[in-house]
Amino acid sequence: MADQILIFLQALLDQTGAAHFSFGNLVMIVIGALMIYLAIAKHYEPLLLVGIGFSCIVANVPGPPDDVPGGQAISALLYAVKDGGLFHYAYMGVEKLIIPPLIFLGVGAMTDFGPMIANPRLVILGAGAHLGIFVALILAKLLGFTLSEAGAIGIIGGADGPMAIFVAVKLAPHLLGPISVAAYSYMALMPMIQPPVMRLLTTKAERQIAMAQVRKVSKLEKIAFPLVMAIIVNLFFPPVAPLITMLMLGNLLKEVGVTDRLSKTAAGGLMNVIIIILTVAIGSTMAADKFLTVQTLEIVVLGLLAFLFGTASGVVTAKIMNLFMRTKINPLIGSAGIASVPIAARVSHIVAHQENPNNFLIYHAMGPNLAGVFGTAISGGILLALLGVT
Question: Which of 193, 253, 256, 348 could bridge to 365 as Cys pair (CB 3.0-4.6 Å)?
């Protein structure tokens, strides 16, 4: 009788997730909880980290075995992601490159390109802060990744989530999960990643440099800008034109002044829905059996190196510019040259404000930050063109 009870209890246990819980699951649950902690306690991009962290946790709580012979235990969230589930179609929006252009539409509707138009010389910083892309590409190739895979990994250094997804789908779709996780996780953690590099490469006096107010940009300039940029990008960088075109459309809706309803929808309700779908889709790929692999960990480390080198190259570029300029710029805004809008600009402002409470760099930092979007697009377009992808 006791043996029968034990057999019954074992059979019952086998139908739960507890029997299939692994140390890897525990590690990923801790990582997901850490993301949520950083979002709540440190305010590190909560719109991204809460959804990704929650989905990471749930994706690593095993459920009963799948309903096929020899099926593995999968979580309730992964049931929703597999064929026919709600987030299966959400993730298809990422794979089929529907979500990234819509994100750019919303970003464009929220963005004021005035700082970049008013001080065009800061566009140089948007190019200078992209060394990380090519450092990661070279290191990935040395680690044995193919050239296409290395290009997809390298674009993480542009700190542009939608662009990273876009290039990964084109060059290495099988690496989309770890690349998107690395890109969005590091974007959200930039307030922790960038400041040590910024302080290491600058003196206290440099960090305290205050910058003069730039000229006011006219409404005509702001309306003309998205039109001109859309034409230029479609002419010379067609591989990445879908993203930048939507960015410019969103910005045009904002600036013309007669489409407020559309602009508010793109920047508000639509963007919020997309963020929920995107973060859950990304977090759902972080199951331990797929995430805790040598290849994935290599991509995560390469992504971190790309962010560090991008931050450093932006600051160094600003310091070099100061050698030839009569009116000095604060080199901290160089770190904003990577494309994470407006996270990188906000980090530049915070670090400068800590050194000098009267220093407000956010508007100045937005110039290179917005230029970084185009820098990443150009880098992605070059990679796609060189590797024969359209």
Answer: 348
Q: How far apart are CA 370 and CA 359, in angstroms?
A: 20
Report pLDDT digits (tens) over 120-167: 888 899 888 999 999 999 999 999 999 999 999 999 998 888 899 899
**pLDDT over threshold 60, residue 227:** yes
pLDDT attached to residue 63: 65
d(CA 291, CA 352): 37
Q: Which residue has the tokens 């190739």?
A: 141
Buried-state track 350-381, b at ≥16 Cβ within 10 A, e below 16 = bbbeebeeebebbbbbbbbbbbbbbbbbbbbb
Q: Quick one: which of 112, 287, 292, 282 has its CA closest to 214?
A: 112
What is the spatial distance between Cα 154 and Cα 300, in angstroms, rounded to a whole number?
11
The pair of structure tokens assigned to 73 is 């235990």
Q: Is 324 exposed, middle or buried (0-12, 13-18, 19+ CB in 10 A)?
A: exposed
Kindly state the average pLDDT of the residues 85-105: 80
Q: What is the pLDDT of residues 345-354, one digit of tens each?
A: 999 999 999 9
What does the pLDDT read at residue 285?
Answer: 81
In angstroms, the CA 352 to CA 330 distance is: 8
pTM of the prediction? Answer: 0.85
d(CA 59, CA 80): 10
Q: How far is CA 55 from CA 32, 178, 372, in A?
A: 8, 14, 30
At how many degrees (to 10) do helices 46-59 and 23-41 cross? 160
